[in-house]
Design goal:
Strand order of the largest sheet: 7-6-5-8-9
Distance between the termini: 21 Å
Strand content: 25-35%
Helix content: 25-40%
Amino acid sequence: MNIFDPVRSKTDFVKRYQAGEFGNASPTWHSPMKFLIESEEGKFIPSGYYHVRNRIRAGETYYNQTFEDVNRLINGPLRRVDSDWYVSAMAPTEKTLLQGEVQRSSQGLYLLYSQVRKPMRDALRDDTRVAVGLSAKLLLDRYLNARSREWLEYLLDSYPDHIVEFSAYERCWGTVPGHNTVFWECRLY
């Protein structure tokens, strides 16, 4: 088992997240300007919705943004602070099965979760539940497919004393084929 350096800040996490260190993720562009440049270069065809995310912990976030919305944000409120932001494809929240934060504790797994089909921040605000020990394990086993469940164990083993934030969906989605779960964050608790 490898134990990796702890994640010490949101900025540290984002850099490592974008490098793929934490496994399946949402397709992501390192900055709003990179997002626009890559679309102009034809590296992807803008479609669907995007999430404009903040590198500052608990910072402002913009869900369900169209390509035009992202462009307006870049030329408006984000213009002077482009380095604080990055853009991800919007996850299929309408397909959410289970999402939340999991960590190992003295009682076994500790799972703070929601099954509300909204972005996680909103879902947890609407309905937060807790499962501990065997109950947490059974929920995770039920909703995360085998590959995602295995990767979650790898993250919990590799980053002791960390919380792993995730969303599991009805279908596989994200940057790593065969996973129905996106790992949003790994941070010290």
